[in-house]
Amino acid sequence: MLSGGQISASRVSGFKRDNTLANINKMLVIRVDGIGDLLNSTPALALLRESYPSAEITVLARPLNAPVLIGNPDVDRVLVFDRTGKHRGITAQLQFYRQLRRERFQLVVAMQTAMWSHLIAFLSGAPYRLGRYQKRFRSTLTHAWRGRYRKGETHEVDRNLELVRLICKGESKRKLVFHLSPDETAAAKAQLAAWGVGPDAFLIGIHPGGSSFDKRWPEKQYAELADRLSRQYNATILLLRGPEEAELVRNIEKAMESRAIPYAPESIRALGALLSCCDLVVCNDSGPMHLAAALDVPMVAIFGPTDHVAWHPLSENASIVRRDMPCWPCSAHKCKIGWECTKKLPVEPVWDATTLTVEANQK
What we know:
Blueprint: E1 26-30, H1 35-39, H2 42-51, E2 56-61, E3 77-80, H3 90-103, E4 107-109, H4 115-123, E5 128-132, E6 143-145, H5 156-164, H6 182-194, E7 203-207, H7 219-233, E8 236-240, H8 246-255, E9 260-263, H9 268-276, E10 280-284, H10 287-294, E11 299-303, H11 308-311, E12 318-322, H12 340-343, H13 347-362
Helix pairs in contact: 2-5, 6-9, 7-8
């Protein structure tokens, strides 16, 4: 059994099979960042559930990523922290912090490595607080992972599993968890039918967006790829976008010679349901990429400066395409050569990867 006091990486390199804490009835896991960040934490959540089967597991999420946990059997409750809405301003945030303290969690896991996560863990009053020994307020942790990860070495799923193994038992599975209900899948199929897309159509979903400019493959290349896929496979092209990506999709559609169906799903779950209906998904490194990976949809993901080893889609049906550069690993936001890894990636390697993926799934 572990008790209070910080635990270093060196002490757990050969971790025990059972490191569980005693008398844990309520725990909080903090993950108020991206969709992909939360999805890549779901194997760690599964290990927490396996190790603490009787505990109530609550996840602190944000409006953007919270919906991916609906139907997750490893999560009992989701608390949503809305920094720009309901919890905007110091008064609303103080009320939220008091609410967390009244919950009387015995354990808080700062899965997101951030100063704010460490602070929230401390303010919760939980006697056990697990996190990585980085960022400010790290000294408030009672159990800490002190290791360092260099780029190009470790997947995010494994990082999260390595963290919770400090207080867990077993290994867990390296499988993302995202559940769609039958009604959500039926709604997606009904939407496709309304567009005249029947069950026999070869449906290719393209999501050209991304959380930042450096991750986005150019519109012209996407248009050329979509045209070639349409001609080669008589495919129906579904151009999917987020709320702020209308112009991006419109530019691709204008540059295409073939027809496409542009659509902005009303929610992240509606997007997931449509992705599950696709025979192939092509996208950038993004939250939707991780959704498709969780659903095991055949996929080709385009990577730029992101650490592809840490963030590649965790699915046997997925492959990635990237342009290797002598400046990688890099700090993408300070690029001095115009993100050539993304912006000058030609169509041909992406085309080759898509045809290989299609042929592999037609056997």
